[in-house]
Write a structure and sequence with these properties.
α3 runs antiparallel to α4. The longest helix has 16 residues. 47% of the residues lie in helices and 12% in strands. The chain has a two-stranded parallel sheet. It is globular. It is an alpha+beta fold and 90 residues long.
């Protein structure tokens, strides 16, 4: 194993915070493995938000998505750039 290897053990029960940190962890692992900042492309990012609105869990999903995208896309030193596409008309 390399000196700077990172070991991530599988977790049977993930917390909401674990899930929110998913993009940040993925970008860290990709950066460590390839030695380059990664590019994150997310298609239809707004689908969960639309479903939350339609199924009465809007505030919960907006809070989750805010933390999910902030951790993975905002001030992330392992990210070259991110690209989001949505399905909702503006």
């Amino acid at each position: 194993m390399k000196k700077n290897s990172i070991i991530v053990s599988p977790v049977i029960m993930s917390t909401e915070v674990d899930c929110q940190m998913g993009l940040q962890l993925l970008s860290l692992l990709l950066h460590k493995h390839y030695g380059k900042e990664c590019i994150i492309i997310i298609d239809e990012y707004d689908t969960p938000i639309q479903q939350g609105h339609n199924c009465n869990f809007y505030s919960e999903i907006v809070n989750f998505m805010r933390n999910f995208f902030s951790g993975g896309l905002k001030d992330n030193p392992h990210l070259a750039f991110g690209f989001l596409t949505g399905i909702l008309e503006v």
